[in-house]
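Re: that chain you flagged

S.,

Sorry for the slow reply, it's been a week of failed gels. I finally had a moment to sit down with the sequence you sent. For the record, here it is as I used it:
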Amino acid sequence: MTVTSEQRFGEFVAVRRHAGQEYVAELVLDRPKAMNAVSTDMARSIAAACEALGADPGVRVTVLTSSHERAFCVGADLKERNSFTDAELVRQRPTARAAYTGVLELPMPTIAAVHGFALGGGFELALACDVIVADATAVVGLPEVSVGVIPGGGGTQLLPRRVGAARAAELVFTARRVEAAEARELGLVDKLVEAGRDREEALALGARMAANSPVGLRAAKKALRLGHGLDLRAGLEVEDAAWRSVAFSGDRAEGVAAFNEKRSPRWPGE
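Prediction finished late last night. Pasting the structure tokens below so you have them in one place:
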């Protein structure tokens, strides 16, 4: 797949676009010497990249990938953390949080392409995405209690939303690592593919999503996210508000016209 453009955010994060997939952005974790352990600088770069992506109307889908052959991301940089004083750790916390919320709050659909280790904060970055594609080498888990902390990148909230409270409690309290086949069985990942194909499959899935209305995609994601956990009546109100936000859009008019004219839509994106 030919890279047509790359924008760097600091030393450890890149956003790439590819030929034939102009509406799909690839957000690359690129700190291979540390297996993408999230340092303060890397966290700051993830947040900056997400801010730029969220403001780009040309991005319909974002795919989160890794440049490391054997890991998606091994979580927080514990070597850096070990050097912190208590005061430094407190000061660093908002920077760390901004990286995870940056991915979580991206307004377009997001897909994580996971291979190898996705542990702690690494798995939390994947959990912040809408869909997780994993290959057969994937090993996921939230082992934070084994080093005296808890998942702090959204894991205690995102995991039970995926797999239920009891299953999430078992996984968090045991700190165990889960290999690919079991991860798919438990719902920790959504799609399991052959070793080495996670990125390719995730980008292809992103391209299929990106063929649809950008206005519709963002509104649908908003309805899904805001409605989750609400009672049915409240959830339907969230859906109705999202519907009203797109019902009179240019995308809706184009979509209906294209359907009736039996042609592919040319989305105005507004």
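What I noticed first: The chain is about 45% helix and 20% strand.

Talk soon,
D.
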